[in-house]
Design brief:
heterodimer; A: 107 residues; mainly beta; six-stranded mixed β-sheet; B: mainly beta; four-stranded antiparallel β-sheet
């Protein structure tokens, strides 16, 4: 199975900061990667697919990049509603694994 | 709009069985593959299983293979997860999710609100 390793596992930041979360795959997955945001008690919400395509309705301050084994999710200017947990997931093969998550907290 | 509503969760003893349902609306259910993903309390997301749009292809996580069975009724727009030989480590919120095709594969685009399964004596 392909392993996805996210870093950092947690991150403290302030409103207006630029933050970057990384996701590394244990083998090449082309651009078959999605990013999700999850708030407490809620289902995950799709942000990015195909590593860099912004889902409709998602604010443009979110962006994704990468291919092969190394990927990043960037939030250009943090807003109060962005404090949540973020997960990457590959869709290159089965099983469809997730990263362990990155919890973004208010500093 | 797309809606996915899970039901059937509850408390069950170790070794017991439970069947989860996911009722879909707002899209042509029979045209899309569907997944189950679970999340243990305070933990991350774990992919559980996939079923193709016509029910003819299925994949399972190793942690549930041989114990869980995925099926669907395209006339009733409903997805099912039959869970047998349940273990305490199966305790989680179970989400159903719809997939969408892209250039690089099929990713999860819409998720239900989840249903809680608790395995405890």
């Amino acid at each position: 199975a392909i392993r996805l390793t996210q870093s950092p596992s947690s991150l403290s930041a302030s409103v207006g900061d630029r933050v970057t979360i990384t996701c590394r795959a244990s083998q090449g997955i082309t651009s078959a990667l999605a990013w999700y945001q999850q708030k407490p008690g809620k289902a995950p919400n799709l942000l990015i697919y195909d590593a860099s395509t912004l889902e409709s309705g998602v604010p443009s301050r979110f962006s994704g990049s990468g291919s092969g084994t190394d990927f990043t999710l960037t939030i250009s200017s943090l807003q109060p509603e962005d404090f949540a947990t973020y997960y990457c997931q590959h869709f290159y093969s089965y099983p469809r694994t997730f990263g362990q998550g990155t919890k973004l907290e208010i500093k | 709009q797309v809606q996915l509503v899970e039901s059937g969760g509850g408390v069950v003893q170790p070794g017991g069985s439970l069947r989860l349902s996911c009722t879909a609306s707002g899209f042509i259910f029979s045209s899309y593959g569907m997944h189950w993903v679970r999340q243990a309390p305070g933990k991350g997301l774990e992919w559980v299983a996939f079923i193709r749009y016509d029910g003819n292809n299925k994949y399972y996580a190793d942690s549930v293979k041989g114990r869980f069975t995925l099926s669907r009724d395209n006339y009733k727009n409903t997805l099912y997860l039959q869970m047998n030989s349940l273990r305490p480590e199966d305790t989680a919120v179970y989400y159903c999710a719809k997939e969408r095709s892209s250039r690089y594969g099929d990713f999860l685009d819409y998720w239900g609100q989840g249903t809680l399964v608790t395995v405890s004596s």
